[in-house]
Amino acid sequence: MSTRLAGKTALVTGAGSGIGLAVAQRFAAEGARVYFADINAEAAEKAAAATGSELAAALPVDISDEGSVEAAYASVAAGGPLDIVVANAGVQLFGQDAKVGELSLEVWEKTVAVNHRGAFLTLKYAVRALQGRGGSIICTGSPTAVVACGQTFTAYSSSKAGVHGLARVVAADYAREGIRVNTVVPGYTETPLVQTIADDPASRAGLVDSTMLGRAGTAADVEGIMVYLASDESAYATGGLFTVDGGLTAL
Ligand SMILES: NC(=O)c1ccc[n+]([C@@H]2O[C@H](COP(=O)([O-])OP(=O)(O)OC[C@H]3O[C@@H](n4cnc5c(N)ncnc54)[C@H](O)[C@@H]3O)[C@@H](O)[C@H]2O)c1
Questions:
Q1: Which of 52, 160, 185, 233 gets the most CB atoms within 10 Å of its CB?
Q2: How far is the CA of 38 from the centre of ligand 1 (A)?
Q3: Which helix (H) or strand (E) holds 222?
Q4: Domains of the chain by range and CATH?
Q5: Ligand 1: which of 12, 17, 157 to mutate, judged by most atoms within 8 Å of the beta carbon?
């Protein structure tokens, strides 16, 4: 394994499962000190321990709660400066998110609280941590923010469009301070988040058929672009959207 992130410190939200787990573990394998941030403290502990690296640690946090996010960044700061933040944690409320005429305010608020407000809070404190030093922030976006493949997912698609917009404006506001912000757009990626789709052969086949490469993605498919954007190899990349979707949004 290479050590493209040796000497760097990263915080990855949603690192207890799926894409965040794969990315945080890959960052650790690439030599970074990594904080596995997740609302599920047990999953974060397990994921950090599985790296076998002394530089990996769990960081319990609820990204929808400002006090929790502020406290998490304060505990990271006590251990040294940060270089990389991956704002990745998210929720998708299958069976509850719906067409706008049928969507409850409660489900809208729950989704937006984690996906959009959570990304806002993660970036607010990320920027404060990186100011004066520079660094890389990566948001996990979604094809549903780019094309209408998220039909009936009104709250989820809207919250993810909010994330794409947030990333662009933060990129513009802090570029001259050496802080880069990019968005990674995974396609249909088989993780616990989308188990409902995986369990429904017709839905799964529909998504796979809409993907140029003709297969579902895995969390491992997303690692490489994250390492690139986290490392100095991407020094000239900011404000960008990087799709790793098997061709889903281009078809
Ligand atoms: N899986 C896909 O097909 C897909 C496609 C495009 C984008 N995404 C996005 O990728 C990101 C990761 O999704 P995944 O598929 O790995 O999902 P996942 O459910 O496997 O993992 C999400 C993690 O986020 C954590 N989390 C949830 N709410 C939180 C909160 N309030 N504070 C802190 N942590 C919280 C969960 O505990 C979980 O460990 C999400 O933003 C998702 O919207 C996923």
A1: 160
A2: 10
A3: helix 220-230
A4: 9-239 (3.40.50.720)
A5: 17
